[in-house]
Amino acid sequence: MAPLRGAPQLVLLFSGKRKSGKDFVTETLRSRLGADVCAILRLSGPLKEQYAQEHGLNFERLLDASSYKESHRSDMIRWGEEKRRADPGFFCRKIVEGVSQPVWLVSDTRRVSDVQWFQEAYGAVMQTVRIVASEQSRQQRGWVFTPGVDDAESECGLDNIGGFDWVIENHGDEQQLEEQLENLLGHLLHDWPFLLVFL
Fold first, then answer.
1. pTM, whole model, 2 decimals?
2. How far apart are CA 62 and CA 44, in angstroms?
């Protein structure tokens, strides 16, 4: 279960396909709220770190958007699935350790078990955000369909759950994205007025 100390006041779980813009959106929101208020948590971080240790790989290179990471992605996915089967909350618990900011943006929620863990731990302050982007816009960002990756649970696990609290369309129209982010921030400020103290 999650630590009681330093419990967040707001947790947003972001999901979406590869190259949909999850990192861009979460970085943009954090820049507007401030790093002292808002932490970006990446489930893939502890997964990659542990995988690198066990396989003698360069952890830093697994974090970037390089061909190095892509060459290990399929094996990392399989390894991560084995860890989750043994303990569904393993990576969730790892990323929340020691986080002190009141707002948490989980930038890479990929599985129903991730959503369930955060729902059980932080349900009253948790919301889900789905980032959607057309295949064309994802391709323009460098996405190429990879069998064993793009058809795996790590990419498709949340495709059919529906009921997201927020859906942000990120098809490459900067103005449309900006309007959606402003709308999201406006609702967050209304629903969680504590944020006004920090802005």
1. 0.87
2. 10
